[in-house]
Each structure stands twice: as C-alpha cells, then as structure tokens.
Amino acid sequence: MTLLSQQVSGFIENSSWIRKMFESGIALKKQYGADAVCDFSLGNPDVPAPALVGDILRDLADKCEEPFTFGYMPNGGFPWARQIIADLVKKEQGVEVSGDDCLISCGAAGAMNAFFRAVMEPGDEVVGVAPYFVEYGFYTSNHQVTFKPAKSKPDTFELDIDSIEAAMTPKTRGVIINSPNNPTGAVYTKEEITSLAALLDAKSREYGRPIFLISDEPYRFLAFDGVEVPSVLPLYDYAVVLSSFSKNLSLAGERVGYVCLSPRMPERGKLMAGLMLTNRILGFVNPPVIGQHLLKAALTAQVDAGIYAKRRDVMARVLTEAGYDFLMPKGAFYFFPKAPGGDDVAFCQRLMEEKVLAVPGTGFGGPGYFRLTFCVGEEVIERAAEGFRKANR
Ligand code: PLP
Fold first, then answer.
1. pLDDT band at 131, cuts 50/70/90?
2. Which terminus, N or C, of the chain has the lesser number of Cβ atoms within 10 Å?
3. Which CATH number fits domain 53-299: 3.40.640.10, 2.60.200.20, 3.40.30.10, 3.40.190.10?
C-alpha cells in the first residue's frame, strides 16, 4: 500500500545532495566525534544575531499579557512591519517603494511559493540560472510549474543572456536570478541585469503576457571588497525582489522574509491582493509575529559581515595552498571550486574519506564543481587544510 505520492517518493529517492551530505555528516560525527569532522555542507548561519535582536525579544516579552500580541493580523503582515520592509528596500536599493507593495511571508522560501501560487498557471515554466539554489525546482513543482535551468557563462558564472533566451518558450512566466549567488558567489552587474531586462521586455511583448524577473536576494548584505549589488527594481516593470532575514540577522529558523514589487509595475495592487490570498491559503496564513518584531533590528543592525570576510580569506588561502582552482566569491558565503579530476560526486566522496564534507556541484546543476560553505569557524577551515591537500594529490 502506498502512502506517499509518486512525486514525493521520487523526490525523497533523489533527495538533494545537501541533505545526503548532511546525513553522511551526522554518521561521520557519530563515528569519529564532531570535532574530527570538517562540515562545509550546510549554509546555516552560525554568526550570532545582533544584540538588538535580544533587546527586541525582551521588550516583546513584556507585552505577552496584552491581548492579541500573538493574534492573527492581515495576511501580508502587520502594516508597520510592511512599512519597515519598504524603508529597508529604499535604504538598501535606493528605490522608493510603498509598504503596500511589500508582503511578508515565511522566509524567502514562503514568499517565493506565495508569489508562484499567485501568478503561475499549471504548465507554466520558470527559467533559472545554473548553478542554482536547489530548492527552486521543488518550489515550482508545488505549483505544477516546470523549472528550466539555463547555463551561466563557463568559469565566471556571469549571466549568459543567450542561454536564458534559448530556455524561454511561450510558457515562460518568470526568470529567477540570485545575486549574490548560492552556490557560486557571483554578483551580477547592472549591465548584465539591464540586458536581461531588455530580453524579458521583448519576450513579454512577443508572448503577450508579462514575464517576471524574480530576484532572490537573501545574501544582498554580504558582498565583499566593495562590490556593488545593483537593484533590479528600477530596471524592469515586472521585477520582484524576494528576500529574508535568515542570513543578515541570522534568523534562518524564525522564518521571516518578504516579496517587494517594483514601483514601476502596472496594476500591482491586483497582484498584491493575490499575494495576500496565497500567503493565507498555502497555510502560512500570515508571517510569524515574533519574526516581524525581530526584523525591526535590520533598520540599524546586521550580523558582523567582517567575520565572513575573514573566513573567506582563510578559505581562499587554504584552497590555494592545496592547489584548487576556484573563483574568489564576490558575495554570499560559499566557494565553488572545480572538482579535481572532474567528477564532483567521486571527489566529494574522496573528501569525505578525509572527514571533510562538501556538496557536489551536480546537486546545483553545476557538475564538475563542489560547494563549500563558510558558515563555520576559521579553526575548522584551518583544520581541513590537510584533508584538502591529501584529497587533491
Ligand atoms: N534563496 C537562496 C539562494 C538561499 O540560499 C536560501 C536559503 O539558503 C533561500 C532562498 C531561502 O531562504 P529563507 O530561509 O529565507 O527561506
């Protein structure tokens, strides 16, 4: 007797490489002890949340006895919290947006699902840039939508406009970009995004309906060496930004994120009404109360990005000394080096023999590479140096 749907059984069977590595990591740690294993598999921010988050939480505790402190609120979030999102977007991206154009959801993941549910017809397609965040395919399939990867430029991981165009069909309803990028660390320039916007403009006209430019930006705060992360909102009428406080405030488990519509988008009030509904009927109902209070912190604080910058330097040194070929990440907290020998799955197995956990690029649509996250202390990176060296002999 089958309990699971065929689709979900299939998903479990082909479960993501990140999960597989995570589970192998648990087994290795059990066998050898946690300190013996260098785990670079999961992008779970370990840098503590800013102290202000604690202050806000303590203030909120004083309101526990007031009625409705934890009650339902409008499905898009508290009006004051939506205004904070608008203020933040303005501060980060230099664009004037209204709180009415921002919807708060359960992380960027929840925001993306609410958005897909609101705009996609079954059978539609979403193009994403490979290598990509592995969950995109699951989120599209939740809405009977197909995820179609389009390759980025070899070695540099820049946007390849021709390859995006080749992946588009009359069913294309959206193109997702993620910058700073997980897993490659790429940050797209204003020129690249402008070219993409021109393509989407032309294709929207050709196919007779808007194609959304979906900009997934939870790593916007983390760009190194003064690299600029350009705003997509002023560049295209049908641009939307999805983001969260999972990384910049280290609140990944608190599930608070948002979608913000371009102030240039015609009839965006109708889309927002749809988003309010889909946020509710997907079962999120509304974003978490505590998370909305905590996101106030983002107006004046964020995690110490200097910690990530230092780790990036240490990781770059360790990988260089061990003879790896990699591009220095411009943003986010991942390295995406070439797998020696070319077989990323076999190479990650080899690293595992050295008790070093990495994720094969195959899991991100980027075979031949492997991903390392630097959500771990410098001492772990240093400790892995010998394993990296031995595996590359
Ligand atoms: N998009 C990218 C590129 C991510 O790396 C992640 C999480 O790692 C998400 C979206 C989802 O983030 P959230 O915790 O806000 O749902």
1. very high
2. N
3. 3.40.640.10
